[in-house]
Design goal:
This protein is of the alpha+beta class. The protein has helices at residues 10-15, 35-44, 64-71, 119-129, 155-160, 208-219, 229-238, 273-282; strands at residues 5-6, 19-23, 26-31, 47-50, 55-60, 84-90, 96-106, 109-114, 137-140, 146-151, 175-181, 184-189, 198-203, 225-226, 286-293, 304-307, 310-321, 326-334, 343-348, 351-358. It is 20% helix and 34% strand. The longest helix is centred in the middle third of the chain and has 12 residues, at 208-219.
Length: 369
Amino acid sequence: MDGLKKTPLYETHIKYGGKIIDFAGWALPVQFTSILEEHHLTRKGVTIFDVSDMGELDIRGPGSLEMLEKLLVNNISKGYPGRVIYSPMCNPEGGCVDDLMVCCLGPEHYMLVINAGNIEKDFNWVKGVAKPWPGVKITNESSATAEVAVQGPLSEAAVQTITKAPLADLKYYHLYRDVDVAGINTMFARTGYTGEDGFEIYCTPEEAPKLWDAIVEAGKPFGLQPAGLGCRDTLRFEASMPLWGQEMDDTHGPIEAGLRRFVYFKKPDFIGREALWKKHKEGTDVRLVGFEMVGRGIARTGYPILKDGEKVGCVTTGSYAPTLDKNLGMGFVKTALTELDTEFDVEIRGRGIRAKVVKMPFYKRGAEE
């Protein structure tokens, strides 16, 4: 693992038996026991993940809200201290620079949580957009911030045993600041990337191993186990949550990805507004769909999608979905092929295997399975 970036929990993962892989230049555990076991445990119980590779940008000072309204496509003015807002961040052509979470910390004070592979790019992009607002101070706090995610229906019960903060009162996509967990000062956000209830907990890198150990110990009566990247991807995929670089990228933005609800056209000016409005009103050549494999085979990222032998799209993510016991996929296809039950083929090892368009999200917490 020489040459790879390591999170503050690298040695902890070794101690707990994590199988370390190269993930976009980071040494992170793909699994501790098995991907399937960790997946099912997150759906039915509780697991803990290391997500310290994520980036954090601190935004503060006069004009911060105005700058963020220009930078992001969602309505940031609806935020208030303790609110978390999801938003794509677009380029002028309506493609996606990144998608991120805005943590509202105080008046004219925000934290952007950004994707690990985009930290430097995003930092430079935001600084460029902020130039007309000299009072806005932007600091890259990524190396000074560690983050763990506790996910699953038993997450609240497990973590409540080591904090006095009233977790039952914390609403979805809201946060608490200055939460004491086993003597460690943290920030708690009721967010996650698994489709389950849970928390993303932020602390200093120095305190991260102690925080991890405290949560694992507190979670023992609830069956808590560490989990790795493998099931994090299958969990987010079942919940049809987009992954930047696959379901969105520099050329495919929120309109193509089916995320129109996160674009707030009522505000008069933001980067990409004109292009996004045109796509919204006139339609796009391709749209993201969910599909189920009818024939035997698993669709993988990058596999061609065919209709009558002609390439009409590309798989963005595909996998066996353990909760649903189906082979499913997401992909961009020509807009004419996006109606439910439309059939096409996925090219797998040179053969066209039949698939049909199905509704997303594939899995929704609390819904009948």
